[in-house]
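Table S2 (text version). Query chain:
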Amino acid sequence: MNKEYQRTDIRRPTLFEALIPIVFMVFALIVGIFIYDTDPHIPLLLSAGVATIVAFRLGFKWWEIEKGMLDAVRLALQAVVILMVIGTIIGSWIAGGIVPTMIYYGLDILSPSYFLVAACAISAIVSIASGNAWTAAGTIGIAIMGIGHGLGINPAMVAGAVISGVYFGDKISPLSETTNLAPGIVGGELFEHIKHMLFTTVPALVISLILFAILDFKYSGQGAGLSEVQLLQAELNDIFIISPWLLIVPMFVIVMMVFKIPALPGLTIGSILGAICAIIVQKVPIGEAINVLYYGYSVDTDVAVVDSLLNNGGIESVMFTISLIIIAMCFGGVLEFTKIFEVIVEGIMTFARSTGSLISATVATCITANVVGCEQYMSIIIPGRMYADEYKKRGLKSKNLSRTLEDAGTMTSPLVPWNTCGVFMAATLGVPTFSYLPFAFLCLISPLIAVIYGFTGFKISYKKEKQPKYVAEEIAQ
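Corresponding structure-token output:
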């Protein structure tokens, strides 16, 4: 359809109209999740229906609304496909003995006394190298969760450490899509953006590692004993051929990411190599190895921890997540298409008079976009477009905005259960979003540091011709 949206009967929503679907969504999710213990799918679907009614009231035709939904869903298609490939990787790497091997040797190397700190640091290194939080979580993250399970460490804490690590790498790696997207949206330069982000991200990581060290110290004596670890290793050794040679597969995948092989083909190759290991090394029949890619790996032993650890993976295991992504993106698409986001941001801007309040408004908008837009890229693209001119008007360099977009947009995306990042991390690591949220320290601390810097003026860069005092005078006029 080549129709244009130039009809005179279409109008922008008022602030009251813009808030209707947002308020309804919050109410529906609270009632559905916390009162009736339902999944977020139906509350979000109902919220999309309410947003559609508002769109009709604004004058939009159904075909226009539908196009807005489908355009938003298309934004998430890459994430959906990657998620399916991650499902095949989990299944094939378990069947191929790769994940069991990483867990087996990890139980020898890592100790409960420093496990969370090590988990965060290792995840960060892999994520920096790969430039992708999802790749890091879907490879080394899975192994770390398994090791933590074997050591008897709270899975929510382990997931929080993994997520803190992978999002540190995703945020500052020059290979990351969001790291390139943020300065691109606001007209900044990539390495200036990365350098400026270090002032907020490194302190946030240091604080996070200190908090994980405290948790390690507090709970180190409550993990599994040596006999339990040995039992788990013995079970893994009985079921699989454990060999350090199998570690070549994940190392090869990481090397491909370092050399900028796109995530989708790189992960697909990793999945195929896992299936080959299952067939050749573990002697899994070819038909069964193929089925593992869709249905996941399944085993029934007398040890509950082994069953819960290994019964995982496959495309089928991520279909719950994919359906949630599609529904969430339909809702976010209506809000973007009808300019509801824009109207809400304009309402916020009436209160943003100082640099601190402007950065706080940017942080709030990024978080809101993650909640109601349901996609990490929306939390960068929408606020980036909305605030770019305002930052320029106030004499602020564009790298301040691009940094804040990542401090709040990139970092809070895995904390929203229906955001594509939240559902991915929950599905991949096997821990509900609200369970790991209190322990995803880096993601919680980064937005706070951004706001503190805004109000104190610390590491806020102004253009030479417009210093803060002149900006304040201009705003006061």
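Notes on Table S2: The longest helix spans residues 62-95. The two ends are 47 Å apart (CA to CA).
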